[in-house]
UniProtKB/TrEMBL annotation:
It is found in: Cell envelope. The keyword Coiled coil does not apply. This is Cytochrome-c peroxidase. Residues 1-19 form the signal peptide. Residues 685-812 form the Cytochrome c domain. It comes from the Bacteria. Coiled coil: none annotated.
């Protein structure tokens, strides 16, 4: 057998070792890909040479491939031939793309589209699916080759939508893997021809210009497989008593599956096995132990029985096999098509447990699947039971069957109302008498998105007695992205519809407005922008949205020093608040002003490798694929067309609509101008002292500290970038140059938890003290922060420092922080 391996490029450093090969005793460089988190460096082609050893994951020891030849391929892959140390077996290895693929029957690596992935056991449904895909593509491509073809045929592979959905960012690697599989088959048949991928094209781009073929079958995979399910998923009986359960076999292929039945594949446990098909009422039908044909896309139910002749404790999965003569046996998935079985000398509790996800009443969207809605972060389901065995003391617990980020709690429920009898907990213990039918509610919760992989991502509810399984059931679990809930009458965002104060509409605040003429705020545009701002679909793994780092209750800043990205990585700077973002005359965005406009800025986090990780073309495709966006784009732009430019325009409108103008400071301005008796009456004595320290106040004899020179206007916006002397040098972060940074508006600064571009301060008191005594004589220090050649020292009293902090809290706008116009439209 010829094995074909494909490896991965990654922007990390691989582990290169020098070791003695067991085959020849010579010292050779080793590229160790079997180590945890190992990856192939980008310059692998220059670091691998004939005689090198590549160690691949294959069991505990790994598989050592000794390189014979190495050559570059047209798509940037590196083709390697070699031999397996110890056996001399010839192999091919292709490096490039975003993951490993290996030959059918071996352990396979399935990329998840981000350069990560998982190894698939040979018997898993996913591995069988990949093997079937390979079989079909190879057979169809060979059939498309001209019989007299010779030499190398250049191939353009057309990657259809379904192929890309299946393999994501690893589609190119998978296409190359399939081409290698075609060549392996051609070589094994002795045909004097091979194929070479020279281009990858999307669906609908026309036929290949290459003579012969266009790489057949990449978008027409219809695997001829059978799958199976078993209920209940456990039985615990006494020796000599039959344990019965139901099974369903589904033919997922395009043709009839023949002679389909059940069998036991192992000698243990000891006993007798029998099965029989059932009718629509689940009554036995036909002849016992007789297989039947199942039509294409059809299903057949069976009842089966196992009567043990000896004890089998503590128990294990009954070695069931679901077979058809023209299909591979159904892949076994624990909790889906297995039966945990135990046989005891005496009667024991035998809990028949059935999970109900409530799809018919809208509790979840699919039967047998629990939905964790992305904003609710929890998903419930119910479990009904019947003890058909003896009485016993049973511990009931619930937990995920795989390593997925879910916590699960359970409670016993009132059979009449369904209400919990006690607070949900990780487990509970109760006495269950013979014939009893207690019911339970289960609650799964998690913040990290869970992909829909029903064979592996499941919750198991377990009923045990002294550690022995007496009952179990499982359900699939996934994260479900919700649709936005928008008001029937649109929220108002346009300036003409919003009651902005006069000092926002005129004078220096209005002069600082960076809204471009071609992107004025409209109600429909800002509504679309709001949905995009909160939509987690704009991150690679549906984990975060723009709002994950810009939280309304925090003035659209973050509660961490640095923000957490889609894979848990941290950003390099603190998240700035977005309040009054439209009022900044320079019009540039980010702390270092690297975005020329807000329209430029709003798109940058989406493809960022730490923040959201989704290429813009994929973001556009995701948005276009959601039906609810069609109406939103039509309302905003006149038609349903989705482009990154339109997304930027809408999100910029939404961010510019975030104006704060109903703080206690604004309410004082409503009473009278700054310095008037009516204005002063709205503030406390301490707050008014802080205002006089912050900025010159008409009629006041208190010397202002000139804070308002940088935090200008009655909207408290930044006038420019400034080096404020945070550090003695600019080595840590040069910002916009020479240690200068842009500052957000001070509106709602009192609800933020971290301050400055690096979040170094955690209280306003620390910020005030920095300006009082901590300014460093850094190169480029703003002249307004100097006292002659030295950095400023304000020498404030404790009373004055407290007054400044009190004034800053008057800029908090609770209406803004809770305004439904700016809230999450996906929350319900």
């Amino acid at each position: 057998m010829t094995r074909t391996f494909n490896g991965a490029f990654a922007l990390t450093t691989a582990l290169f070792l020098v070791a003695a090969s067991p085959s020849d005793g010579q010292t050779s460089p080793i590229l160790d890909l079997a180590a945890a988190e190992a990856a192939i460096p980008m310059d692998a082609a220059t670091r691998i040479e004939p005689g090198s050893v590549i160690r691949l994951p294959d069991g505990a020891a790994g598989l050592r491939i000794r390189v014979v030849t190495i050559a570059a391929r047209p798509l940037g892959d590196i083709a390697i031939t070699g031999t397996v140390d110890g056996t001399g077996e010839q192999v091919r290895l292709t490096l490039g793309g975003a993951g490993y693929f290996t030959a059918a029957g071996m352990e396979r690596w399935r990329p998840d589209g981000s350069g990560q992935g998982q190894f698939l056991p040979p018997g898993s449904l996913a591995a069988a699916d990949l093997a079937e895909e390979e079989r079909l593509v190879v057979s169809r491509t060979l059939a498309a080759l001209p019989p007299d073809a010779r030499g190398m045929i250049a191939v353009q592979a057309r990657l259809g939508d379904s192929f890309v959905r299946r393999h994501g960012l690893a589609s190119r690697l998978r296409a190359q893997d399939l081409a290698e599989a075609v060549n392996a088959t051609l070589a094994s048949e002795g045909r004097p021809v091979s194929v070479e991928l020279v281009a990858l094209r999307g669906a609908g781009t026309g036929a290949s210009s290459t003579p012969g073929i266009a790489f057949a079958g990449l978008d027409t995979i219809a695997a001829d497989v059978i799958v199976a399910a078993v209920l209940p998923s456990s039985r615990a009986v006494r020796v000599g008593d039959p344990a019965t359960a139901f099974a369903t076999v589904i033919n997922a292929g395009a043709g009839e599956a023949t002679s389909c039945g059940l069998a036991l594949t192992g000698a243990s446990p000891a006993g007798s096995f029998s099965y029989q098909i059932t009718d629509a009422l689940n009554q036995p039908a036909g002849t016992p132990d007789t297989p039947v044909n199942i039509p294409a896309n059809g299903a057949q139910s069976y009842i089966f029985s196992f009567t043990p002749s000896a004890t089998f404790e503590p128990g294990g999965d009954l070695p069931l096999e679901f077979t058809c003569t023209n299909r591979a046996s159904a892949v076994v998935n624990s909790g889906v098509n297995t039966l945990w079985f135990s046989a005891s000398a005496n009667a024991v509790p035998d809990i028949i447990a059935i999970a109900e996800t409530g799809a018919s009443v809208g509790l979840n969207s699919l039967p047998g699947v629990v939905d964790i809605h992305d904003r609710q972060r929890s998903g419930p389901f119910a479990v009904a039971t019947a003890n058909v065995g003896a009485a016993g003391t049973i511990t009931v617990s619930a937990a995920p069957t795989s390593d997925i980020p879910v916590t699960v709690r359970i409670c016993q429920t009132d059979p009449g109302t369904g209400a919990c009898l006690a607070a949900p907990a990780p487990d509970l213990t109760l006495d269950i008498i013979a014939g009893a039918t207690p019911s339970f509610a289960v609650f799964a919760a998690g913040d990290t998105p869970i992909s829909f992989a029903p064979a592996t991502n499941r919750i198991r509810v377990l009923f045990s007695e002294g550690g022995a399984v007496r009952g179990s059931t499982t359900v699939a679990i996934r994260t479900l992205l919700t649709e936005p809930i928008l008001p029937e009458v649109s929220f108002l965002y346009a300036d003409a519809d919003v009651n902005l104060p006069n000092y926002y509409r005129n004078g220096p605040v209005a002069a600082a407005d960076n809204t471009p003429i071609g992107n004025r705020i409209t109600n429909a545009g800002a509504t679309l922008g709001r949905v995009l701002f909160y939509d987690r679909r704009l991150s690679l793994n549906n984990a975060v949205s723009c709002a994950s780092c810009h939280v309304q209750a925090l003035g659209f800043s973050d509660d961490g020093q640095f923000s957490t990205g889609f894979e848990g990585g941290l950003t390099g700077r603190h998240s700035p608040g977005l309040t009054n973002a439209r009022y900044y005359d320079r019009g540039h965005f980010f702390w270092d002003e690297r975005a020329d406009t807000l329209e430029d800025q709003v798109l940058v986090p989406i493809p960022n490798e730490v923040e959201m990780g989704l290429p813009l073309d994929q973001a556009v495709a995701r948005v276009a694929a959601e039906d609810f966006y069609a109406g939103l784009f039509t309302d905003a732009f006149g038609d349903a067309g989705v482009t990154s430019e339109r997304m930027a325009l809408a999100m910029a409108q939404f961010v510019r609509s975030m104006t704060s103008h109903n703080s206690r400071f604004d309410q004082a301005l409503d009473a009278g101008p700054v310095g008037s008796a009516a204005f002063q009456a709205q503030l406390t004595e301490q707050e008014y002292l802080g205002l006089q320290l912050f900025m010159p106040v008409p009629g006041s004899d208190i010397q202002a500290l000139n804070c308002g020179a940088c935090h200008t206007t009655l909207a408290h916006i930044s006038d420019d970038i400034h080096n404020i002397g945070l550090d003695a040098t600019n080595d840590a972060d040069a910002g916009a140059g020479n240690g200068a940074f842009k500052a957000p508006s001070l509106r709602n600064v009192g609800v933020r938890t971290e301050f400055m571009h690096d979040g170094r301060f955690t209280t306003l008191a620390e910020v005030v003290e920095f300006y009082n005594s901590g300014v460093q004589n850094t190169p480029g220090l703003d002249n307004r922060m100097r006292q002659g050649p030295n950095p400023q020292r304000l020498n404030l009293t404790d009373e004055e420092k407290a007054a400044l902090e009190a004034f800053l809290h008057t800029l908090t706008d609770q209406d803004f922080l809770t305004d439904p116009r700016f809230s999450d439209p996906f929350a319900n």
